[in-house]
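Memo to structure team: turn this sequence into structure tokens by end of day. - J.P.
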Amino acid sequence: MISLLYELTPVRIVLDGSAGIVVIALHGFFLALAARVMGDAGPTHDGRLTLNPIAHIDIFSLAGVVIAQLGWVRPMDIRSRELKGGIARVIVMVLLALAATWSIGRAAMAARGLLISLTPPDLLQMTESWLFAFTRMSDRFALFNLLPILALTASHAVREYLPERLRGTGLIVSGLTLVLALMLKLLVWR
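Reply from structure team:
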């Protein structure tokens, strides 16, 4: 755990924090949009169909992107019973949102040459560092959120099968997800 704290330089905090906030906002929007397209208007009514990161982030997910470079959106209340097609539609919704998040990161890296050519020379190194941080964050975000547990996106596929008290969408579930992210960072992504 101490080694994680040594990696937290001010530049790293700004790069990973800002890239993570953008990825979280994009993924939250994509997930709410996919739910809306699949028939659940709940996230739209909850104000989640927006690119505003405040609607999608909580303190634990922000800590996750800064400390562990792993992120998730604030748990969203998506009801598989509201979706036409049931569990199959939930799986499609999850995969669409994660694919869109991953694709945005890949598209940013593919457009790197153009973006760099438009960047003033004084900001060149910081812009390139941010693009790499953004791409890394979107890759890790999509991979991490494939796990069907806690506050992660794929958990929507199993949430209906859990006991009522384990279906939480609050800060406790997000806090437990942060513990999981820190464990993965320490054990896998060193």
